[in-house]
Amino acid sequence: ELKEDVLNRSITTFLISADQVAHVQPDNNLEHALLVLVKSGYTAIPVLDTNFKLQGLISKAQILDSILGIERIEHEKLGEWKVKEVMTDNIACVNDDQPFEKVLSLSINHPFVCVENTQGAFLGIIPRSKILAYINGYFHE
Amino acid sequence: ELKEDVLNRSITTFLISADQVAHVQPDNNLEHALLVLVKSGYTAIPVLDTNFKLQGLISKAQILDSILGIERIEHEKLGEWKVKEVMTDNIACVNDDQPFEKVLSLSINHPFVCVENTQGAFLGIIPRSKILAYINGYFHE
Ligand SMILES: Nc1ncnc2c1ncn2[C@@H]1O[C@@H]2COP(=O)(O)O[C@H]3[C@@H](O)[C@H](n4cnc5c(N)ncnc54)O[C@@H]3COP(=O)(O)O[C@H]2[C@H]1O
Ligand SMILES: Nc1ncnc2c1ncn2[C@@H]1O[C@@H]2COP(=O)(O)O[C@H]3[C@@H](O)[C@H](n4cnc5c(N)ncnc54)O[C@@H]3COP(=O)(O)O[C@H]2[C@H]1O
To answer: Would you say B14 and B131 are in contact if contact means Cβ atoms under 8 Å apart?
Structure first.
């Protein structure tokens, strides 16, 4: 494969589709989000609204940061606070018609890249492991 | 750069040296480890003994898993349990004289790869972000 062919490659083969992606909703409380994160084993997961539109990302670190008080772990906040109050909107996101080159450069600073279609519907994510597996294969052709 | 040159490249240019790597010791308690993890912002960090030899990795997820009881968060364990009781020994590790090819293939399934010298002393880590930045540059030469 030529270098330009790699960069112009379609991204659909790298996609983990939405039904395989652990996610929570903006109005869930932090306890629910923490349980989904701990059960899934993932560090950070997408936040999708009821129309399945991407709203942000939430991680164990953000939840821990929000409940670690100066004196003690304020675990009552887990039931009271909502995901939307803690999530980040610093999301790497591309359209499904953009080439691999765009996902490769975003993956330098983001553990996964979200993918939407042209109407803004969430299609899934491309994690760094998929990109690295493909690159490893390219160098061993 | 030719494909073989990339695979045979030395790994020292990718290294985050040991003095820049957040780490804890096997005999620290979980509360200390959680504070280092939360303060550093990293998901997982190396565990080094007093001779600076790599013993394992510890993550927020492991600490959270160990204190999440069925009924409640058992936060008293944070002061009582030690890092060595919770850390994993599933570590991706290479010698500093091994080529880039080895680090690339390990990075597919590990967020970072540890590097030791031939005497077993911990030299630092190579995170996926460094590998991806180099790969991105290769395709844009
Ligand atoms: N259950 C599991 N089985 C096998 N390997 C596992 C695993 N959980 C984690 N890993 C390994 O650890 C890496 C870091 O996972 P992390 O959860 O920090 O970071 C993950 C997570 O935040 C997110 N992610 C991946 N798959 C996901 C999914 N199905 N749903 C939601 N988020 C996902 O993308 C990030 C990067 O994923 P990536 O695969 O590149 O990299 C993963 C993968 O190599
Ligand atoms: N303070 C910060 N400044 C800028 N970007 C940040 C950052 N913290 C995290 N990131 C970004 O998020 C990615 C995942 O970080 P994470 O902490 O899950 O996973 C990290 C962490 O577990 C470990 N790591 C990286 N640098 C470290 C260090 N100096 N000490 C200890 N562990 C480190 O290696 C994993 C992969 O790191 P990588 O750079 O590939 O990927 C990082 C980086 O792209």
So the answer is: yes
Place of tokens 């040991």: B18
Is A22's Cβ below 8 Å from some Cβ in B?
A: no
B50-98 per-position pLDDT tens digit: 999 999 999 988 998 888 776 777 778 888 999 999 999 999 999 999 9
Between A69 and B21, the higher pLDDT residue? B21
Q: Quick check: CB of A128 below 6 Å from ligand 1?
A: yes
Hey, whose CA ends up nearest to atom 30 of ligand 1? A21
- Give Cα separations from A52 to A7, A25, A34, A91, B78 (angstroms): 29, 9, 20, 16, 38
Taking the CA of residue B48 and the nearest CA in chain A, the distance in Å comes to 23
Which residues on adjacent β-strands are paired with residue B127? B112
How far apart are the C-alpha atoms of A23 and A46, rounded to whole Å?
5
Q: How far is CA A110 from the centre of its chain?
A: 9
Of B3, B60, B101, the CB nearest to A64: B60
